[in-house]
């Protein structure tokens, strides 16, 4: 676990300098409304303020909630599912809800390779990660089955892991996990069907005893994949597993 107060020293100065320089040469232009963003992010402040931020959510799995119960302080509230059956990860960072226009941005990034969309969302995720007290030892992207990766051309989770890992100087281990079963979408399946679907789908490829790991993906939908991967990592001796994603799907989606 890396203490986050060491963070500024870890960020390569040349990256910051390059970013500032490129901002003056090519000022940011908002990808949602087309106006100048006037900052080193292709998203203006007005469009950012209108995004569906995931403020009211379970503190463990980040499941978006309509309203938090009056009796619960915002800090520490967990959904019924997490209370009944706590997952093997400590918490999930999901800055946004998977709703318009976040769904459109993610689909453009994931299915059409529009990485400028991915960068905007990764910056918002990065902001929340930096607010943490400590950072993990390594980042592991959720693996895609080779067939899906072949069709898509890239693994969006690996792209995000590289982006965040470079900015925070955390190593990315893309070989730690692999997916050996081509699984259908988990959405709309019962809990039993989801577990069956994921049974023996993943493999751990090397030792991670005592490591603190962040699992990353673009969207967490039902949470089953993250739960299964965390279980696998903790069983193999990982000290701590946390989840990072761009957006979390509300229950009714
Ligand atoms: Zn805008
Ligand atoms: Zn929860």
Summarize this entry quickly.
The chain has 253 residues and is α/β, with parallel strands linked by helices. Helices cover 37% and strands 14% of the residues.
Quote the beta fraction.
5-15%
Class of secondary structure makeup: alpha/beta
Radius of gyration based on Cα positions = 18 Å
The biggest beta sheet is recorded as:
5 strands, parallel
Overall geometric form? globular
How many strands appear in the DSSP assignment? 9
Helix content: 25-40%
Elements, N to C (H/E) = EHHHHEEHHEEHHEHEEHE
Record keyword descriptors for this entry:
253 residues; alpha/beta; Rossmann fold; two-stranded antiparallel sheet; 10 helices; binds zinc ion
Question: SSE layout and pairings?
Answer:
Elements: E1 2-3, H1 7-10, H2 13-25, H3 45-49, H4 80-84, E2 92-93, E3 96-97, H5 102-112, H6 115-130, E4 134-135, E5 138-141, H7 146-152, H8 156-168, E6 177-179, H9 191-198, E7 202-204, E8 212-220, H10 224-235, E9 240-248
Parallel strand pairs: 2-9, 3-9, 5-8, 8-9
Antiparallel strand pairs: 1-4, 6-7
The chain binds zinc ion (2 copies).
